[in-house]
Specification:
The structure is a single chain. This protein has 390 residues and is of the alpha+beta class. The protein has two domains: 6-217; 227-385, Reverse transcriptase/Diguanylate cyclase domain (Alpha-Beta Plaits, 2-Layer Sandwich). It is 67% helix and 12% strand. The protein is built from 13 helices and eight strands. It has helices at residues 6-32, 41-64, 70-92, 98-110, 117-146, 149-175, 178-217, 227-233, 235-244, 258-265, 267-284, 308-324, 351-367, and strands at 247-255, 290-295, 298-304, 327-329, 332-334, 338-346, 372-376, 382-385. The strands form two sheets. A six-stranded mixed sheet has the order 2-3-1-6-7-8, sandwiched between helices. Strands 4-5 form a two-stranded antiparallel ribbon. Helix 10 packs across helix 11 (267-284). The protein is elongated and about 90 Å long. The N and C termini lie far apart (94 Å).
Length: 390
């Protein structure tokens, strides 16, 4: 059996890249039409397209024995490495200093005007290695923050690219063989391309899996917990309350005339108001409090280690904060008010029973004219009203 020739290896290289690219472009097209585009998708698309074209040109010319302009090929690779780094910075949410790398790389590109060919190759090759080292660092940073294994694969791609560029530079310095150095660079960058493709695919799939998991326990509009997530989040808190005989308060908040707001301003405006109200609740409540969106315009807030009197003060603060500051959505000012039902108990908590008690108090607040706080405990029902003037 005869060993594979250089032309055979080049053809295998091209075939592998084509197969990977077809799958990638199909995935990118699918993601582009999806409701949630992954961060950096556009730049990743540019990287994949440019990387494929460059690798095909190199592979075809290498397999036919044609000469490839060293400066043009390496400059194209350098620019494509910039695109990859910017895509990963966008994915990781790193907006500061990301263009500083681009400026340094462009300086390396223009070094060809005053350096010899071999020195230009070394400068360009070093710049590619530096960019790929940054790719590895950014990917590791995002892997640590997001816990996504796909970013680890992207970091490995950057590391392999760094090793390839170092090897090419050593070959050029020691053996003065620019053709072999060029082949090493493009061979390693082909491996980088394949690993970036695998890493990107893995990262996107894992991100979507995490998002699907969140949809089970979170409300998609407000990003707060839903009813199921509320119970899951309170498992430890309620167990501690039962064991230590702590007080636990429950607030049931409802936006007044929410259906009319939707009719007057539109469904999109109503959705935006829910999102803004969710932010207000998150800002005003403690870190230990658990907030959930349980229905159209309805929120449940569970306050651990809180007596009824304190819970009523919290509810009043929330009610007043919403009433005093009109919300602005799509250049429309909406005067929003909420009614709140409050209840509290000590020791073991039956969450369904507490929410039902809070719902009775909420009904009382609505019957009293809305924009009020009402509470229920073992004592007689009490009602307070602090209407906004005007």
């Amino acid at each position: 059996m005869e060993p594979l020739s250089t032309s055979d290896w080049a053809n295998i290289y091209i075939a592998i890249l084509l197969c990977i690219s077809v799958a990638l472009f199909a995935l990118v097209a699918l993601l582009s039409n999806g409701p949630r585009r992954p961060a950096g998708l556009g730049l990743f698309s540019v990287y994949f397209m440019a990387g494929l074209l460059g690798s095909l040109v190199f592979g075809l010319q290498y397999s036919t024995g044609g000469e490839l302009a060293l400066e043009i090929a390496v400059i194209a690779t350098l620019l494509n490495s910039i695109v990859l780094l910017l895509a990963l910075c966008q994915r990781a949410g790193l907006t500061r200093r990301r263009y500083a790398w681009s400026g340094l790389a462009l300086l390396a590109v223009f070094s060809g005007f005053w350096l010899s060919a071999d020195k230009v190759f070394l400068v360009h090759n070093g710049a590619i290695g530096a960019l790929l080292a940054a790719v590895a660092m950014v990917s590791l940073y995002h892997a640590r923050n997001a816990g996504n294994a796909g970013d680890v694969i992207l970091a490995c791609a950057g590391a392999i690219g760094v090793l390839g560029t170092l090897s090419a530079s050593m070959l050029l310095l020691n053996k003065q063989d620019s053709s072999l150095a060029q082949a090493v660079v493009f061979g390693s960058l082909g491996a980088v391309y394949a690993l970036v493709a695998c890493g990107f695919l893995s990262a996107v799939l894992l991100d979507y899996r995490r998002q699907l998991g969140e949809l089970v326990v979170r409300d998609p509009l407000t990003r707060l917990l839903n009813a199921r997530g509320l119970r899951k989040a309170l498992e430890v808190t309620l167990a501690n309350a039962a064991r230590m005989q702590h007080n636990t308060a429950t607030l049931l908040m409802n936006i007044d005339h929410f259906a009319q707001i939707n009719d007057s301003f539109g469904q999109d405006c109503g959705d935006a108001l829910l999102g803004q109200l969710a932010v207000i609740l998150s800002d005003e409540c403690r870190g230990s409090d658990v907030i959930a969106a349980t229905g159209p315009g309805e929120f449940v807030v569970v306050l651990p280690e809180t007596e009824l009197s304190m819970a009523r003060r919290v509810a009043e603060r929330l009610r007043e904060g919403v009433a005093q500051d009109p919300l602005v959505v799509k250049q429309q000012t909406v005067n929003l008010t909420v009614s709140v039902g409050v209840t509290a108990c000590q020791g073991s908590v039956d969450l369904d029973a507490e929410i039902e008690k809070a719902r009775r108090a909420l009904a009382l607040a609505k019957r009293g004219g809305r924009n009020q706080v009402a509470s229920v405990d073992h004592s007689p029902v009490t009602l307070t009203s602090r209407r906004r003037e005007g």
